[in-house]
Amino acid sequence: MPRPFSPKVLTANALLEGDVVYMTADGAWTRHHAEAELIEDEATAELRLLDAEARGHEVVGAYLADATPGPHGPEPVHFREAFRTRGPSNYHHGKQERA
Amino acid sequence: MYRYSEFDEAFVRNRVAQFRAQVARRIDGSLTEDEFKPLRLMNGLYLQLHAYMLRVAIPYGTLNGAQMRQLAMIADRWDKGYGHFTTRQNIQFNWPALRDVPDMLDALADVGMHAIQTSGNTIRNVTADHFAGAAEDEVMDPRPVAELIRQWSTDHPEFQFLPRKFKVAVTGSPMDRAVTAAHDIGLRLVAKETGVGVKVLVGGGLGRTPMIGKVLKSFVPLPDLLPYLEAVVAVYNLLGRRDNKYKARIKITVHETGIEEIRRLVEEEFAARKPLFKGADQRMLAEITAQFAAPAFNAEGSGDYETWRQADAVFRAFTDTNVARHRHPDYAILTVSLKAHGATPGDATSDQMRVLAELAERYAHDELRISHEQNVILPHLPKRHLKAVHEALSAAGLAVANVGLASDIIACPGMDYCALATARSIPVAQELATRFEAMRIEHEIGPLKIKISGCINACGHHHVGHIGILGLDRAGVESYQITLGGDGGPDAVIGERTGPGFAYDQIVPAIERILLAYLDLREGPGETFLDAYRRVGLGPFKSALYEDGEARADAA
């Protein structure tokens, strides 16, 4: 039996700044994980990935990352993705600086 | 110090101009990322976790005040006001925007620096002993050889697409402060009655499959060095595996082919190549060597250095740990620690960089070094200026007296920056150093090298740390493995794993248990951690880590 699909967000790095972006439900890029579209099925996930890969003039290295629903929107599952929503732990730089 | 020739200058400027056009074409959509990526990597530009990262070479770790000031300017103008010095004598800027990178590279070219071949499957920045030219114990300054290799390997048409990256380190001292045994090629300068030559080690490397380099040839006369190196890299270029990234480094080629067969092939290749070198390389080496002539050491005695040492305990502690013997009796080699307790190992703010530049220019023959241990060195500092330098460093937060001690930790950027990392390393280093400071035990412990990597690629050299820490992702949780007994010196040794890893919040107490166990079992303050480990082995440390850990925690 195929494994059940675990929900995902589509994420990448912005071409110009290099910072982390997520795809929203209307296909725009957001800097905030909670504003990302939580993709619940595999077919949509594949479509979103193809769409992102076709937008190589906007973003680099698009991939699907596990996420889970939260009170304010999708939340990361893995610690790596949690770090990507904030920035490094040694300085108040990156996203946490602008939050 | 080496000054760029017209050729160097034109080459670097051309490369910047090419890259400027490539960036513009990437931004306007003419180049895809697949097309652009190899081009940006050739110029040291990575895309990391939160941003781009520009890795700038500091060849053989040497730079002058003007270069350090320019790094500070770049940090302020295009980054976030600091830079990170790495274990390969590079500096990394963690926050550049893609559009700005060509300007950053031009600013580097203004002071004779570049980011060429700091990435990709090429011969990388050639590293050397950070005490080169100043050390009392060296056969010859290794930097002219390193510079010759830099020039030879830069844009070498045969070696732009090697099976994998290729790292070369050179030492002129039997103490081997350049970890030559952990490089693809390690070069150790040795003197014979017939002249200086090179002991060539091959196939060392850390990473997934750590190996200590093997002696390929115990003496290559200097005039044969470039054709010999070319033969080694050519043999690797043909034999090295391109089917599997994890088996592509020369250490695997040597392991699978056997050192005797490699030696035979290299000799064959050398015989064919040697006649093609008609002496231009030796003329260049002579010219380069002249540029590395030692400054005129004239310190006019050591002033009131000893008096200050007696009078000021803080100054005495600082000089006890951070000063090494210089070849001239009135001079010191001063290591400036970038490891303030709780700070990020290897980071310097732009203000600190300017202070270091100023001190080098004013007191120390305008020379600075970056060590693979992520510190900055004033290699030629007259002892009579040490007191003034110490005061200036104190004001800049740079007078930490911990060089070679437990808190002088090497740490890779780890998952705070690196896209390849599997766990964080910087905060582990920060918390360890903070803990040692709170316990006030590092001077009692004495010489100790702790090295932390945030993934199996081992940029933090954990395999050769007396205590090595490797951060891994175990089922979605950060987990830290400990190795003990590693050594990056002349008789390099890979450390042994203690057993199961520790969670992020358990790794600091685990290291603390190892250190308390050491203080318990050592034969006296004269027996270093490494000596004690070699005497007693893993056993007592394993017990301290895994058996009585809970009991100790309860008792505390």
List the helices and strands and how they pair.
The complex is a heterodimer of chains A (99) and B (556).
Chain A: E1 8-14, E2 20-23, E3 29-30, H1 42-53, E4 59-70, E5 73-76, H2 79-86, H3 95-98
Antiparallel strand pairs in A: 1-2, 1-4, 2-3, 4-5
Chain B: H1 6-27, H2 33-42, E1 45-47, E2 52-57, E3 62-63, H3 65-78, E4 82-85, E5 90-93, H4 101-109, E6 127-128, H5 143-153, E7 168-171, E8 185-192, E9 195-202, E10 214-221, H6 225-239, H7 250-257, H8 259-273, H9 280-291, H10 305-311, H11 313-322, E11 323-325, E12 331-336, E13 347-349, H12 350-363, E14 368-370, E15 376-382, H13 386-395, E16 410-411, H14 426-439, H15 442-445, E17 450-453, E18 467-474, E19 477-484, E20 496-497, E21 502-503, H16 507-521, H17 529-536, H18 539-547, H19 549-555
Parallel strand pairs in B: 6-7, 7-8, 16-17, 17-18
Antiparallel strand pairs in B: 1-2, 2-5, 3-14, 4-5, 4-13, 8-9, 9-10, 11-12, 12-15, 14-15, 18-19, 19-20, 19-21
Helix pairs in contact in B: 1-2, 1-4, 3-4, 3-12, 5-9, 6-8, 10-11, 14-16, 16-18
Q: Would you kindly provide a brief summary of this structure?
A:
The complex is a heterodimer of chains A (99) and B (556). Chain A is built from three helices and five strands, in the order βββαββαα.
Task: Please characterize this protein's 3D structure.
- The complex is a heterodimer of chains A (99) and B (556).
- Chain A has one domain.
- Chain A has helices spanning 42-53, 79-86, 95-98; strands spanning 8-14, 20-23, 29-30, 59-70, 73-76.
- In chain A, strand 4 (59-70) and strand 5 (73-76) form a beta hairpin.
- Chain A has a five-stranded antiparallel β-sheet with strand order 3-2-1-4-5, sandwiched between helices.
- With 99 residues, chain A is an alpha+beta fold.
- Chain B has 556 residues and is α+β, with helices and mostly antiparallel strands.
- Chain B contains 19 helices and 21 strands.
- In chain B, strands 16, 17, 18, 19, 20 and 21 form a six-stranded mixed β-sheet that branches. In chain B, strands 1-2-5-4-13 form a five-stranded antiparallel β-sheet.
- In chain B, a hairpin with a 5-residue loop joins strand 11 (323-325) and strand 12.
- The longest helix of chain B has 22 residues, at 6-27.
- Chain B starts with 5 loop residues before the first helix and ends with a helix.
- Mean pLDDT of chain B is 96; it is low at 551-556.
- Chains A and B meet through helix 2 of A and helix 14 of B.
